Hints:
mainly alpha, 12 helices, 76% helix, disordered N terminus, disordered C terminus
Amino acid sequence: MNEAEHLLPLTEYSFERHFDERVAIRWMQDNWSKSFVFCGLYAALIFGGQRFMRERPKLELRRPLVLWSLTLAVFSIIGALRTGGYMLHVLNTSGFKQSVCDQGFYNGPVSKFWAYAFVLSKAPELGDTIFIVLRKQRLIFLHWYHHITVLLYSWYSYKDQVAGGGWFMTMNYLVHALMYSYYAARAAGMRVPRPCAMVITTTQIVQMAMGLAVSGLVYRWMQEGCPSYMDNIMWASLMYFSYLLLFSSFFYQSYLKGSSRKDSKAE
Length: 267
């Protein structure tokens, strides 16, 4: 057990205290490969769904989308607060290096429940794409690629309790808290200023850059006892690097390219 488990400045709720992470980790070790089944069904459903909807009118689904986005927003906000509190405690008591190499995130008070909730949530989050398909919105490569790879990597990594998980999960909770709150507001018909979308995409880019940096640090410190495996570091690095490129491209295409065209026309 990590020293961060002691004197944690967070009230531990009953459901967090009674959560048995040993059962969760054992289940994931035996069943993590089922994530490939989820991803295969997901791909078949969304691309088959697009074909099915081609000659049919789009569905509005505004109220279900509000409820869906709001539910994920609340879940992500709570997750960010709980895991963020744990990570801040590790940073304050043990330093940055320990926060990267810490395995207590998977079995410590408070965080152990939210670590497992995080990896499981990547399966129902695939439902985001169903709304895009049924509402006949544009489905970009970044969207479905990101959903599939996050699910696969999260399940693959949780079973081994690898270093860096605390940073990866906490950052994702935080970004999703912002993102799903934005989606819920938009679905409810609220006028959200354009800079809000830019800020969210910027935080996603920062998340990917930080994920890549943490992966590099795990590799650097692995010989000093930072618990991980070369194949995990390789997949994490490839994943975060691809995300960094894709989200940066999305930012340019969505917020800069159009603006530069308008400026050139104005001149």
